[in-house]
Write a structure and sequence with these properties.
The structure is a single chain. This protein is of the alpha+beta class. The protein is built from 14 helices and twelve strands. The protein has a five-stranded mixed sheet. It has a four-stranded antiparallel sheet with strand order 9-12-10-11. Strand 7, helix 6 and strand 8 form a beta-alpha-beta unit. Helix 4 runs antiparallel to helix 5 and helix 10 crosses helix 11. The longest helix is centred in the C-terminal third of the chain and has 21 residues. The chain is globular. The C terminus is likely disordered. Bound molecules: thymidine-5'-triphosphate and magnesium ion. Magnesium ion (MG) binds next to strand 1.
């Protein structure tokens, strides 16, 4: 297999925001901590400590539900500056181990350590060093996944959390994927999972039984990709200079808005502005992302990748309508709206960004 010679590490911090809070407030240690909206607001959980996870609490759950599950939990307002600082510390550490580092979000990154000769080139030992360096510098715990491609390394970092270190060797890769439920594949979202289930495809093994033509027929261009990952093949390089090729515009309102139609009107205006900018940069985009910051500063994004290039003549209303469906627009006041247009390759996008409830950094 062409990619089995590489050594890829995926690092992902444990309970990142909550761990920073526990580090900075000793009284929160060993306690169920929830970072996000207050239980009496319509807020959601950004993340929670592992102590809180024992009660069934998880990211994106309404805070009111989290409160019902664990009334003694401590609710903490996010402190984005502290998370950014920790994130920049870990990125500095990554640079000491490889030139090829691809951050995915504040708390995770891929490293290609194929050229690193420390520990006779043992990626597992290098990953142990990185975990130790992170702990020493930031007081925070990371989990690491080690494998021969990005797809497997990312899955591996999740296997042994918290404080995990998990290796998937070239001998194990294909078999590992066979036993995996398709819903666990990065790049297979809820809708695709449902469609696969309806076709009787539940695991990597089931997926591997399908021909490229069957997969293309049912899943379009993604068919080839599914064909590859079911065989644990992922040739994407770790990309340390990923161009975002995106333009975004946003506006903060003097008075928070609530009315759905008003939100739609603003989104359309922002889209027009973004398209103008895109045009100036001679870029084209197929992905439309909206950003909503509610009055309590909780922020979400929703994205859609379209089959065609986004243009001025396109009727964006149905897309906005469908993106707003899984938001609290109409019920919860909004202080900021944003629209971003990007031209990422669809699978890069699916693999690199969380599709649901992606909470971005508060830029204010
Ligand atoms: P994750 O790495 O998904 O979660 P985590 O680090 O809290 O927990 P673990 O990796 O141990 O499972 O996300 C990193 C941070 O991103 C998280 O601490 C908070 C933020 N985040 C949100 O704000 N909303 C979300 O829905 C998710 C998934 C994450
Ligand atoms: Mg994490």
């Amino acid at each position: 297999m062409p990619d089995q010679g590489r050594k890829i590490i995926h690092i992902d911090m444990d309970a990142f925001f909550a761990a920073v809070e526990q580090r900075d407030h000793p009284k929160y240690q060993n306690k169920p901590i929830i970072v996000g909206g207050k239980p009496n607001s319509r807020g959601v959980v950004a993340t929670c400590s592992y102590e809180a996870r024992k009660f069934g609490i998880h990211s994106a759950m309404p805070s009111s539900q989290a409160y019902r599950l664990c009334p003694q939990a401590i609710f903490v307002k996010p402190r984005f500056e502290a998370y950014k600082e920790a994130s920049s510390d870990i990125r500095q550490i990554f640079k000491q181990y490889s030139e090829l580092v691809e951050p995915l979000s504040l708390d995770e990154a891929y490293l290609d350590v194929s050229q690193n000769t420390v520990h006779q080139g043992s990626a597992t030992l290098i990953a142990t060093d990185i975990k130790q360096a992170i702990l020493k510098k930031t007081g925070l715990i990371a989990s690491a996944g080690v494998s021969y491609n990005k797809f497997l390394a990312k899955i591996a970092s999740d296997m042994d959390k918290p404080d995990g270190l998990y290796l998937i060797t070239p001998e194990q890769g294909e078999q590992f994927v066979e036993t995996l439920a398709v819903g666990k594949f990065h790049g297979i979202g809820k809708a695709t999972e449902k469609k696969m289930h309806a076709l009787g495809i539940k695991t990597g093994w089931d997926l591997k039984q399908q021909s490229v033509s069957f997969l293309t027929q049912n899943f379009g261009k993604s068919g080839q990709y599914y064909f590859n990952i079911s065989r644990a093949i992922d040739l994407r390089p770790v990309n340390n200079h990923r161009e975002s090729k995106s333009v975004g515009v946003e506006s903060t309102f003097q008075v928070d808005i609530k009315d759905r139609r008003e939100v739609l009107k603003h989104l359309q205006l922002l889209l027009d502005k973004a398209l103008k900018k895109l045009n100036e940069k001679q870029l084209e985009a197929q992905t439309l992302t909206i950003k909503i910051k509610y009055h309590d500063f909780v922020q979400i994004t929703r994205s859609r990748t379209l089959p065609n290039t986004i243009s001025k003549s396109m009727n964006a209303l149905p897309i906005f309508e469908s993106l707003l469906r899984s938001t609290d627009i109409g019920q919860r006041k909004v202080r900021l709206l944003g629209v971003t247009l990007s031209s990422f390759n669809k699978h890069e996008q699916l693999l690199n960004y969380r599709q649901l409830d992606l909470f971005e950094l508060n830029k204010e």
